[in-house]
Amino acid sequence: MLIISLLAALLCTMTAFSQARIILPDSSQITTDPDSLDRLPRGSSHWGHLMHDHGAEADSLQQPAGMTIWRIDARTGNRLPAVSDTLLHNFQHTTLPDSYSVAMGFLGPLGSPAISKIFFDREETETFLFNNAYSHYLKDPEKLNFVNTRIPYSRLGYYRAGPQQSREEHFDARLTSNFGKSLNIGLDVDLINARGFYAEQSVKHNNFSLFGNYLSDRLEAHAMMHLGSITHFENGGITDEQFITDPEAVEQRFTSLDIPVRFRDTWNTLKNNRYFLAGRYNLGYHKLPQDSLHKGPGAFVPVASIALSSQYIQQHRRFLSYDTAYVNVDGVQMQQIDRFYAHRYYEGAVDDSIRYTSLKNCVSLSLREGFKEWVKFGLSAFLEYDLRHYSIRDTLGQGYASHRESAVTLGGVLNKQQGENLLFNLRADLGVLGVNLGEFRAMGNVETGFELAGKRTTLTAEAYIKNLKPKYLQENYSSKYFRWNHDLGDIRRVYLGGKLYIPFTHTTVSAGVENLQNYIYYGTDKMIAQEGGNIQVLTARIDQQLRLGIFHWDNEVVYQTSSNEEVIPLPTLSIYSNMFLKAKIVNELTLQLGVDAHYHTKYYAPGYEPALLQFYNQREREIGDYPIATLYANMHLKQTRFFLMFYNVGPKVLKKNESFSLPGYPVNPFVFKLGLSVNLHN
Fold it and tell me: Could you say which DSSP state residue 125 is in?
């Protein structure tokens, strides 16, 4: 009744305002200028597609601030247009773990380990395997938005949910300013403190990134220093799902914090430090001015460039438990946490630790696209050397066992990003020396467009073929509960897909199929395994936006099938649906009022193993066939965004409660959440 009353009140308020004045959002006020500071290559036609990917009204920032935003290819130094994270609507959704995919698996709290249930949304396995579970939260140079701005810019955001004892808080900030036209320096801060709505589930992230860039005609430089840490208390999941699915059968009063869990005083910590520096020197000429009265050498036209980049990575993972009270299990004395594992490779409290460092140096040569009218593409070649070092606690002896390896990669990029009729981006790399000898990737996409009903419709084809070497930690691992030493085969992946975007109906249709051989996964025994046979994964997706006046209904529907569900289990159907009213009222205030939900069909969703910090295949519990829904009001006033949200409203309106994301891990219970984000220009 509370939800229904709130919705009715907000609808009445909106109706009253709408009778006075309704102004539909003016898309003409949204800048699409890719180069307000003349620092990015001319003719970046992909800018419009970036805007589509992030929403038609993705950016309220760049016009008033006079900003240019881009990302960088860490190997070649090429700059790629990007959009700012200043969404005008659906802002509330971006603050949830659910937002990273149509269907996500996570442990509940913001910042906890997560995995996409959409197979093609999963990234390639990282060298340091423990990063995979936190990949959506980690920072690296290629995810960083570099900036050039005429006006000093600050963005402050704060989001909070729940009462004091289980409060979930997220603070993020960006401070950046130019010192002259060429030099920009900035600072990103990203802090998460989630105490958890279930026992022993708190999560804390501390991320600090100092970045900068210098851009001139001849010289381009980018730098980043990131210091990050994650502390995540592990509870191993709840012991009795009846507390969620049938609380009346428990016959006692309880809160979510009272539900019994498997572990106590157990946690994973992860540290990620990155130091990145890249420089590029441009060779070119000054174009003679067409106006004879104009003094000066004219605009600089880059023809070719040479780039050098270096990246040093320090990563550390530790699994520690003080859940050491001794218990008797079938006549055997063991520590409390030990009873959940079949093997123990050393005695005493569990304290698994591994350190990893990587030093990458890369040199590249590039021929720039468009320096002459007849030069219709850009070409880059690079050579990268990667020196890696592992230090793992030795379960058979004292101290740590060390391993050092190196990898040399040769590659290139051929692309065409200017023009309208044909755009493409082709990339290939080959391991020529060291542990990645024989590893290769060849991938690319081709885009074309045509007019349909007076608007430009785009058609994209994409494909890749990969032969990937197993990671060192996939073949060699040592800890208290798990040990293996394998000689795994190369993973072979071949993918072909396409996408059609129809702007006048706001429809995107895509499909793809991939064949995988020697796929590496974690089996039902939680040990690493490899499937030697071929597996085919097929997916089809449609994104449809419907609009009638102030009424909007956006849907994302994904169909998936796997030829081997025991190795790659996938939900057959996954849906994200968002129904809302949106209008500009009271002068500058934009109000979005709606309800959204994530849903997927039942399947054997991955289990989560804290001692490995990995997701594994399980065949005991199916998850799904239940919506994780939110009721929200999202507002935008000039450079301020704020929202109110009720998360997981399903149990309040449906008879059953199956709000699990993974086996043993329910999502956060029904909770009120609010958030605020302010952009400051001064």
Answer: P
Mean pLDDT of the chain: 88
Q: Cβ-count burial of 357 within 10 angstroms (0-12 exposed, 13-18 middle, 19+ buried)?
A: middle
Cβ contacts of 352 within 8 Å, gap of 6 or more: 318, 319, 320, 393, 479, 480, 611
Taken in order of first residue, the domains within the chain and their CATH numbers are 2-681 (2.40.170.20)
Residue 21 has pLDDT above 50, yes or no: no
Higher pLDDT, 638 or 608: 608
Show the tokens assigned to 336.
């409390």
pTM over 0.85: yes
Residue 334: its H or E element: strand 332-335
Q: Which of 173, 148, 195 is nearest to 33 (CA)?
A: 148
Whose CA is closest to 269, among 209, 228, 312, 225? 228
The 8-class DSSP code of residue 586 comes to: T
129 in Cβ contact with 614 (< 8 Å): yes
Pairing of strands 351-367, 491-502: unpaired
Return the residue matching tokens 């920032």.
61
* Both tokens assigned to 578: 């968002």
- The one-letter amino acid code at 458 reads T
What are the tens digits of pLDDT across the range 389-423?
999 987 666 678 899 999 999 999 998 888 778 89
Select from 88, 32, 158, 93 the least CA-distant residue to 589. 88
Token look-up 């066992």 returns 401
**Ramachandran class of 424: left when φ > 0, alpha when ψ lies in -120 to 50, beta otherwise:** beta
Per-residue confidence (pLDDT) for residue 292, from 0 to 100: 58
How does residue 300 score in pLDDT terms, banded at 50, 70 and 90?
confident
Amino acid identity, residue 420?
E
pLDDT score, position 648: 96
Name the token pair of 200. Answer: 């022993």
Output the pLDDT for position 1. Answer: 43
- Which range has the worst mean pLDDT, 41-50, 121-130, 148-157, 581-590? 41-50
Q: Which two tokens stand for residue 668?
A: 């956060």
Amino acid identity of residue 347, one-letter, is E
R_g over Cα of the chain: 26
Q: pLDDT per residue over 545-595, tens digit each?
A: 999 999 999 999 999 999 999 999 999 999 999 999 999 887 788 999 999
Per-residue burial over 592-612, b = 16 or more CB atoms within 10 Å of its CB, e = otherwise: bbbbbbbbbbebbbbbbbbbb
Q: What DSSP state is assigned to residue 77?
A: -
Token pair 């309704």 is at which residue? Answer: 22
Distance CA 539, CA 543 (A): 13
Any idea what DSSP says for residue 470? P
Q: Tokens at residue 486, please?
A: 């394998």
HSE of 258 in the Cβ direction (CA atoms, 13 Å)? 7
Q: Is 587 exposed, middle or buried (0-12, 13-18, 19+ CB in 10 A)?
A: exposed
What's the token pair of residue 388?
A: 């890696």
Task: Provide the token pair at 231.
Answer: 């502390």
Beta bridge partners of 329: 332
Concatenated DSSP letters of 614-671: EEE--SS--B-SS-EEEEEEEEEETTEEEEEEEE--HHHHSS----EEETTEEPP-SE
* CB 463, CB 443: distance < 8 Å: yes
Q: Which residues contact 489 (CB under 8 A, 6 or more apart)?
A: 470, 518, 530, 532
What is the Cα–Cα distance from 213 to 221, expressed in whole angstroms? Answer: 5
What residue has token string 């690493």?
A: 528
